[in-house]
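Anyone opening a protein record will find just a pair of labelled lines. A complete record is shown below as an example:
=====
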Amino acid sequence: MSESRNPFAATDVAPYTLPADVLDQIESPALVVFLDRVRDNVRSMIGYCGTPDRWRPHLKTTKIPEVWRELLHAGVRQFKCATLREATVLVDLADSEGIAADLLIAYPHRGPALRRLAELAGRTTNTTLSLLVEDPDLMPEMPAGVGVFVDVNPGMNRTGIPMQDGDAIGAVVRAAGERFRGLHFYDGHLHDEDLAARRAAIHRGYDRVLELAAELQADGIAVGEVITAGTPAFHHALQYAPFAASDTFVHRVSPGTVVFHDARSQMDNPDVELQPAAVVLSRIISHPASDIVTCDAGSKSVAAEAGNPCAFVLGSDALCGMTPSEEHLPLRVVRGDRPSRGTPLLLVPRHVCPTVNLAEVAVLREDDGSMRTVSVAARAH
């Protein structure tokens, strides 16, 4: 699919309709979350996984306790996150709900962050905490009671130990001792549009994960869990038969974007049926040229790091996003008349995760149409 073609042009907008009296009360730009779509996506994901226990969603996307509660109530108990703010909000939520959760902080924290993690581990009553580690020398600084997942680099070259370096991986495992819980293998760099080619590349990486697990088991070290697959790879990971058949470790996928869905995920995963659940309400504020309109959702409200268009108009291919500035998003009119100034638009971000992080609050719409405003409590650092 072309990067500029709107993957949601044909989406039925009726389920996303906001009454005029509600629109009159919402200042734009605003993050709007449709909880019925969230629940649909969560049910779909559990259906793909076969059981909630096979899914360890990354919380960096959603950042809203009211949305995380939907995951907990659907039976999801394993999570991962990146920041200590996300970890703290999840721990507080699980404790308040009386639910035993399992949270991997999938980021190589150092220094003062480890002291904050120690404080969090010391006060939680329900949540099991683990940390992603690639350095055996970190172990003396590790907070008591915090488990270890070894960060294996599948070729993304962002963090982790190169997957061929079995000796270095083994060194971290041995340094972790009884804290060792499993292997983390995030293959988020594989986006080949040819799904068969993507699947083959992903599965070659998993062949190596099986080799690593077997090498550790031959040394008498049990691998309790293998975590793979963000949004681009999760469907292929679930189709990798040796993971499902393993009787020595539990395999879990870890996509988080899927709860809200976005344009990049739709283009990456045309074989996965999900719906946008988080959009940015914007309004047209200017007619700067005969074939251009400008709306009020610039790069301070819609993440722009993933390329142009940074967002797509839900249910329409008449407008195509151009390069945003901080407060403005110009859209080229490619079909029909220019919409009038003040016209509301619902924008589906290309990349929803950092878009959510830009919002201090979100408007939640319930199944019955009622609306409420909540804090995006786990945003920022």
Q: What stands out?
A: The mean pLDDT is 95. The chain has two domains: 14-32+272-375, 56-254.
